[in-house]
Design a protein that fits this description.
heterodimer, A: 223 residues, mainly alpha, 7 helices, 2% strand, B: elongated
């Protein structure tokens, strides 16, 4: 927010950014927009196949296990994953906010919490994938029946593993980016630079990962 | 934008927690609807609940993008360059889902063999889950 000045009447006269954000942040936004189209294409493809299918497995029968408790707990594990990601998003906002105030300690604490949240989410996903794999589900293998007990196709598992896998890969990249940010903060790179704007860009990416999960969670587990 | 630095600071943290509360609440409502839907069998009601969940999902997306990603507080030009291209999704979703549905209907109409195949019940290995709405379809095949 180093560019918070009174809005001039002519933004496009030159001499400054008409968007009043730095170049890197603007480009991060455009990257995320393109990434949104990638995820959108995946999810719409899933929706199209689901709309063209006569039956589809009931997510509450497929995703009903909880580590240590066994099966019979639909929605519980995915709720945990959702809340982990929301909370890690909140700590990321707090890290960005601490960066605005040049509060190194606040940035470090919140970044560590965000990294823990991301790692916890990845752990949950690894457990879920392993569990489903043990049940016989994988790309090309679908042990689950449709909700009306008719034979299901492998579309269900193919889309599930592809889309949650693509999202999980984004989470993994986000965690790596956050670790890099943490190292840069600890080595005083941002203090020397005089601003923590880089944390903001990493934050945008991290929130996007959370945003995508909102859609994946709804499309695969809820409806 | 014209506040003093301290005032803005307090407001920002307050806003973060407010949005956190809203997101948590919306997620809990979504989950509540999800649990409710497990007990509902009427297709119309299920569709209604699903529609409502999708609306809640979009509200959540708005709060994440608007507040956590700070887009709501950016210059209008920037907001427009991000949001306007995403409007393509309106066409994208409607066109493709309509296409998928149309394909299903065409196949059901003109491919009776495939339709019958799709309605054959499979014995379940484990005895969980429900078979509501299945009986009538089964009779139709016979």
């Amino acid at each position: 927010m180093s560019t918070t000045v009174a809005l001039p009447t002519k933004l496009w006269n030159g001499g400054k950014s008409p968007f009043q954000v730095e170049y890197g942040k603007l480009m991060m936004w455009y990257f995320l927009m393109s990434d949104a189209f990638t995820f959108g294409a995946f999810l719409i493809s899933y929706g199209t196949i689901r709309f063209s299918s006569t039956g589809w497995p009931d997510p509450n029968e497929v995703f009903q296990s909880f580590p240590g408790l066994g099966s019979g707990y639909p929605l519980m594990f995915v709720s945990l994953m959702t809340f982990i990601l929301i909370i890690s998003s909140v700590t990321m906002v707090l890290a960005v906010h601490a960066g605005h105030k040049m509060d190194k300690k606040g940035v470090v604490t919140n970044l560590i919490l965000t990294i823990i949240g991301g790692a916890a989410f990845l752990g949950c996903q690894a457990w879920e994938w392993t569990h489903l794999h043990e049940e016989g589900a994988w790309w090309g293998l679908n042990p689950f029946l449709n909700a009306d007990d008719t034979q299901s196709s492998t579309n269900f598992t193919n889309y599930f593993f592809t889309i949650t896998g693509f999202h999980g890969f984004h989470v993994l990249s986000g965690v790596v980016i956050n670790i890099v940010m943490l190292i840069m903060t600890l080595t005083d790179t941002f203090e020397k630079r005089g601003h923590y704007l880089m944390i903001e860009k990493a934050g945008l990416y991290w929130h996007f990962v959370d945003l995508v999960w909102v859609f994946v969670f709804t499309c695969f587990y809820l409806i | 934008m014209a506040h003093t630095a301290e005032h803005k600071d307090d407001g920002a943290v307050k806003e973060i927690w407010k949005v956190t509360g809203i997101l948590t609440l919306l997620t809990l409502i979504e989950l509540g609807l999800g649990f409710w839907m497990m007990k509902v069998d009427a297709p119309g009601t299920r569709l209604g609940i699903k529609g409502f969940i999708v609306i809640l999902m979009l509200v959540k997306a708005f709060y994440i993008v608007g507040y956590f990603m700070h887009l709501k507080h950016e210059v209008k030009n920037l907001i427009m360059t991000i949001v306007v291209p995403l409007a393509l999704f309106v066409w994208f979703i409607i066109a493709f889902l309509y296409e998928g549905n149309s394909y299903k209907n065409l196949r059901d109409t003109y491919d009776p063999y495939k339709k019958a195949q799709n309605e054959i019940k499979v014995e379940k290995k484990e005895g969980h889950g429900k078979t509501h709405g299945a009986e009538e379809k089964h009779k139709a095949v016979e």
